[in-house]
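Section 5.1 Outputs to date
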Amino acid sequence: YTYKQTLDQGFTSHLIQQVQGAWSQDAWEMRDSLMDMAPYLSQTVLSEAALTGVMPHAMLLEVCLANVDATMGASFLNMLRYDIPSPMPEYMVLIIEAAWGTAGPLTQMKSSLAELALERDQTLALIFQAMQSDSLYYADSLLNWRMQRGEVSDYYAQANYFADMGERDTAEATYQAMEDLFSLEGTSLEEWEDFGHWLRFKLMMSDSTWQIDRLSEANQDSLLWMAENLSGSASGFARNILCFFYDTCPPMPEPPTSKPSEENLIPRSLAVPDCGLFPNPASAKVMFHYGHGVAGRFALFSLEGRRLLDLDLEEKPFSYTISVESYPPGLYLYQIKNSQGIVLCQGKLIVQKQ
């Protein structure tokens, strides 16, 4: 009895009523609503609640500590210091910052989701590689997997695929959807706009009787302009057509803000290609000669983009015999890259059957 009379001078219940009466009902309702969602409150909602100025400092501190993941970031702390109607005392701000030492449930959940996303992307990359290197071309399956992953690069690939199939409306809808689905700004927005130029050109090809290996000089000039002036996938698609079909390979554009390091520059000794296939055209076997003096990787592709063959190339010159007896007659593309992904040489292989 003596202890209880000592606490709050025996008027605990009365003091609680006074305190609750001093804080508005709106403050209590906001506090209770936010605490019900703890510890999974977003920083956006927590910031809006603080900026209203409805909750007193003690309430706001309680809500912040219950949702510590949502408080992480200097901008949030500075908002508490300077931007809310009644700036929070510095000692309270420091209490919130000190609580960052242990990751809360929301941060742990984000970390787990990031790990799962990485595993998913690695698995999908293996699936894509296996499908593209298979002797059977799984175009529809590849498209389905890309739709499931749904990244920016997948939408570019989908739009390009639909354009190849002559599905104009679907190709344009896929392209336009990217503006709403992704936060495109800066270089990402520029690449998206540039891809629109390429897509319109590709759809004109689908609508007409143009053949990719028999384009007019005017159309070749259009491709050259895109290769030299556009960015990202649009420039790459245009450059590949010119290189593989018209022996015109515009230089890769230099990054606008970064200077390439010395190890990423092509050595002067590689300026003159020292590789080739012969006989070409071939019907049974071809001899591949490589003499660049640096390690590389040889890849042979069909016109549909299927990877048919991969070879690791040593630094020393050597020759290798490739059997093409199982390949259908037609045009194939080969390419050699070094470990930095720089193209050392590329060309065409024609398979004919006697």
